Amino acid sequence: MTSPTKAEGSGSSVALDPELAATAEADEPKKLEGRSPGQLMWQRFKRDRTGVVSACVVIFFFAVAALAPVISKLYGKDPYTLYAQEPDYPFLLDDFAMPTGSFGGMSGDFWFGVEPKLGRDVFTMLLYGMRTSLYMAVIVTGLSVVTGVIIGMVSGYFGGRVDYWLGRITDFFLAFPSQLFFIAFMPVVTALFVSPRDETPTYLRAVAIILVMWVLGWMGLARLVRSSVLSLREREFVEAAKVSGASPWRIVRKEILPNIVTPILVQSTYILPSTILTIAFLSFVGVGFVEPTPDWGRMFAVGSEVYEQDPMFMVFPGVALVLFVLCFNLLGDSVRDAFDPKTGR
Q1: pTM
Q2: What does 172-223 look like in DSSP terms, one character per residue?
Q3: Averaged confidence pLDDT in the chain
């Protein structure tokens, strides 16, 4: 049996039970550490397995697109060479210009098979098509987000006539049927710089696609930002900044913009995959990228002509496009839930 100890420095002896002392120490309140909104968001995001997996898939796609030339060099093929005409591969296509062998000509030399009619390597076409679509989508999304944020913040903060006229401009652009406008306006844009008798350079087609999609891609975000700013400009912290003599630019930059980062970020995650689908659509209907530029939409256009003879040619770009768009949309949902403090995820 443990003998009680006596307190030193006093006239009376007090028995102290070691077990009671340990319990008292355990019951003391632990030190609480403050966490920033970013840390809370990151913790909620890490608990969402769907969001984490989607983020990994999206990062993988961007990494593959960035390393496409390196992968192509290690693989030993490129998306431009007509391998059916090379002496090293004399039997890639049959008499009907269809890939010989099973599954679209898949083999150790051509992992995803070869393209019907021309005999190009499908694997490198998919890599460079991914590169084209992602780079274009990032540029268009960035321009659309910047334009939408600026117009929405100016319209919502200043109100009055500024809000009225910017709202009418937004309504004007929203009135355009985007898909039909893309098809009709793309040849017009290219004709402004290149004679119809000359071949349009690839970079000019890329610039035309960016301009057309930028002009018709910022309105939704502008309206979202405007509504958010309208609800914030009358709040107490904004009024306090005005009373203290802060300039409108400082109020917008320091007080309002940090409070609308969440809807901007979430909306951006929806704009990018939609932009990729639109770019593929333009190439599919023949007003986007053309031969020999690798592009997912052009691969779908070729596959739609030969799907009965070679259905495998559409499988790989189809799976890649659906997987990327699905994961990016799921990532957007996860980011929205992570930023929302009311969610239980």
Answers
A1: 0.80
A2: HHHTS-HHHHHHHHHHHHHHTTS-TTSPPPHHHHHHHHHHHHHHTTSHHHHH
A3: 81
